[in-house]
Amino acid sequence: MPAIPKTPDEIKEMRTACRLAAEVLDYVEPFVQAGVTTAELDRLCHEYMENVQHTVSATLNYAPPGYTPYPASICTSVNHQICHGIPGPKSLKKGDILNIDVTVVTQAGFYGDTSRMFIVGEASILAKRLCQVTNECMWLGIAAVRPGGHLGDIGHAIQRHAESNGFSVVREFCGHGIGRKFHEDPQVLHYGSPGTGIELVPGMIFTVEPMVNAGKAAISELPDGWTIITRDRSLSAQWEHTVLVTESGVEVLSISSACPPPAKLITGTLATATAAAIAALPPAPRP
Known about the structure:
The protein is of the alpha+beta class. The chain contains five helices and 15 strands. α1 packs across α2 and α3 runs antiparallel to α4.
């Protein structure tokens, strides 16, 4: 189903919610080092949300039908973990790649969602290339967002770039509408054909969050009921932004002062406007 376009007031609230989610990633970035546990990263993010931002985590105790409550304030997916990795006592080591996925809920009741990849120390050539290509996939998907376009345009751009680089796209998980609820319509697939799917209209807000594997696309679920891994144990990467369909194109909402700029292959209005918006934001508190 198509998303219900947000009102101007709702869009303003979503800008705030998504910026706050991005600022959590800004804050935790210096702590992502060899020797730190993902449980410690979760504690740091939780305390930052609670004590500095006065937001709450959308993932803590989140329990869709058939699931046990998710036990942490962020998702931390390491190496061959695709998504929903539960923070724990295992320490990061040099060469690891890590996705941290953050969703905050503001006091006004709006959800902001974003994720980034982090490289611990010096990673392998394959790991760095996977992270870069996945980031490019996300941005190419975002660049396909425009009024009058279709959801299939987004998935096609992502799938084409991933597969042309020898990687595969996870199909069981997708982007989603977001606003006053964590997950709203529409579902945003990261594969597909151009010109298919619902038509995009101004005011729609959703995430673009491709999950790309270095090996095959097949997945498995760990016994914890949450963590998804690559079946062939190949590396996996994910990047995520929340975006708004505007009258003339797209606006990236989940930006912050330390947010990585658009991928170098993205040019034109999207790259210029996003880079300018990032530069205009005040610096987030750092440790």
